[in-house]
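S1.2 Input.
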Amino acid sequence: MESSRAYDVVIVGYGAAGASAAIEAADAGARVLVLDRGYGGGATALSGGVVYAGGGTPYQRAAGVEDSPEEMYNYLRQEVDGMVGDKTVRRFCETSPAMIEWLERQGMEYRGTLCPYKTSYPTDEHYLYFSGNEKAWPYRLTAKPAPRGHRQVAKGMSSGRVFFENLRRSAEAKGVTFVPLSRVTEVLVEDGAVAGVRYRSMRTGSAGGRRHRRLTKAGGKLAIWVPPVGAKLNARAEAIWQESAAEAEVRAPAVILAGGGFVFNPEMKARYAGGFRDISPLGTAGDDGSVIMLGVTAGGATAHLDRMTAWRFMSPPSAFLGGVSVGPAGVRIANEDLYGATHSEAMIRNHGGRGFLVLDQEIWTRARGQVRAQSLPFQLLQEIYLFTAGHKKAATLDALARKIGVPADGLAGTVRAYNDGIRTGAGDPGHKAADLCAPIERAPFYAIDISIKNAPAYPAPGLTLGGLQVNEETGQVLTGSGASIEGLYAAGRSAVGICSNSYVSGLSLADCVFSGRRAGGHAALSVVSG
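S1.3 Output.
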C-alpha cells in the first residue's frame, strides 16, 4: 500500500463535478488526484451536454434575447422551492454568465442559434433553447421567460462526451493526475479531520483491462435504452474488475466526493423511489450510491433521497403538445407544455405514473410532418415506434376510451372542456399556452401510452437528485447537527444542490460545475493556505 502523502486534494468521481473541482483546485495551486471507478465521464458523457445558463450570456444576446440575473432568479426560485437557500440560488444566477466564460476557457463552444419550437433536445442547427418550464404556467406568471439551455456544439448526442473531454483535457493540462478503474472503499478520518482514502484499483493496460473497457463502453450505452442487456455487460465487466483489482491508499487532507447518485442501486431505489421505481436508470454503473455512503460513513448526513426525476417527453414532434394528457380516470394530468420531468411528476404523484396523450387526425398529420426536421436519431427511433406500434386508434373518442381502458365520460368531459376553452377564447382550463393549443375534433382519434412503466422502445429515463448535505458556502459535508466536516466535500449528484427539487435540462450539469468549482476552490485554498 502507498502511504506517503503525495496530494493535497483527492477527488472521487470524474464527471462534470469532479473535473470542475479538479480544475479549480489545480488553478489554486493544489496537487490533485482524481480516482474514478470507470474511465471518466460518468453520466456527464452520456448526457446531452446542455448547461442551464442565463442572466445575459453572449449567446442569449446574439439571439436577441433579453435576460437578467434577477429574472433567472425569479424563475429558478420556483424550481428550487427552498431545497437550497435563496442566497445560493441568487449567487448561481449572478455568476451564470461568468460560468459560460469559464467553460469556454476550458474549451467549450456555444452558439446563439435559438430553436424556434419547443423540444426536449434541439437538432444540430440549434444550440440555444427553452430547456425548462420558462414559458409554461404557472412559472411564466412571476418570471419573464428566456431560453437558457446552452448546448455544447457537437454532432448529435456526442455533446455530453465533448463537454467532458474538454474538461478532462483542461484538468490534465493543469497537472491533475487521473487514475481510472479505482474504487474508493473508505475515507480516512483521523482526529476528526480527513486524512486520505483507501481504494482498490485495476491496471488498464492488461488484456483483462482492455476487455473491461469494451464491455463498459457497450454496457453504459445499452443500460439506458436496453437495460437488461446493459446490465449483463456491466456484470461481466464487474467480475473482471473484482478479480484483478488491488488495494492501495493515498494520504491527502481534503477529499471531494463527486461520484454521482444511486439510480443504479436497486436496494436504495426500492427504499426511496416510491412512484419513481419504474424509471429507466440514466447514468453509469457507478451511480450506485457508494460515494454518497462514503460520506455517511465518515459522519455526513443525507437529505432528500426521495427526490428523483423521470423524463417522459412529449416532443418532438412539437405538434404533439397540442394534445391532451389524461390519467387512468380520463382526467387531465397537467398542461402539456410543462417540462417533461415536471409533467411526469404530476402523473406519478396524482395518477400512479399512468397516462395517455390523446390526439386527433389534424394533430397526428402535422406531427408526422415534423419528425425529420425536429429529430435527432435517438428521438427518431422512439418516434418510429410511436407512429407504428406505440399508439391506439379509434373512430370515436368513446371507442378510444375503451381501447385504452379509461372511462368514456371522463375522457369526453376533459376533451370537451379543452375544446370549449379554445373555441370561446377563454383559454385552456389546464393553462397551456394558447399558441400550443389545438382542438381535438377531427376523427380518427389517437392515444399514446405515456406511462412511466412502458415498452422497452419507449423508456422514461431518470436519475436521483438527493445526496449529502453540504455547507452552501464551502461545499463541505455536514453532519446531522449541521457542523462541517473538516476536509470532506461533496458536489454534483452526490450532494444536495440547485436541482435537487426539480430537474430541467441543463440544470444538473450547471450545478455540477457550480458545486464542483465551489468545493475544489475551497478545498485547495484551505490546504494551500494551511
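S1.4 Remarks. The longest helix spans residues 507-529.
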